[in-house]
Here is the input.
Amino acid sequence: MLEPTDRAPLLARRFLAEWFAKWGIEDDDVGRLVVCELVTNSYLHGKGQIVVRVFRDERDGRPVVEVWDAGEERPEIQPEDTGALTGRGLVLLAELVHDWGVRLLNEGGKVVWATLR
Here is the structure.
């Protein structure tokens, strides 16, 4: 569980890197980028503590990253704004991963997930 602070993305990247090392996955660049984007969005736009879960899909072994927070606002890819300083992370994420999405939880909050290639 991570506190919603500016240190959360760093801690999430370390957490992911540890799991990838245990699994023998040497190239964790995309995974670190994905978890950083999801945790940053949770920190900036979500509510409460942040939970990061990293596991391998039982069907195909692909790594999956899940980030939970208590907010119910769904992240959405925004139309391109060439003058904006932010707002490109989900566009990049969508291009780098196999699939991604959002699940609203019955108990409140949401899980944003990404399955890596």
In short: The first strand starts at residue 51 and ends at 56. The radius of gyration is 14 Å. Residues 10 and 98 are 23 Å apart (CA to CA). The mean pLDDT is 95.
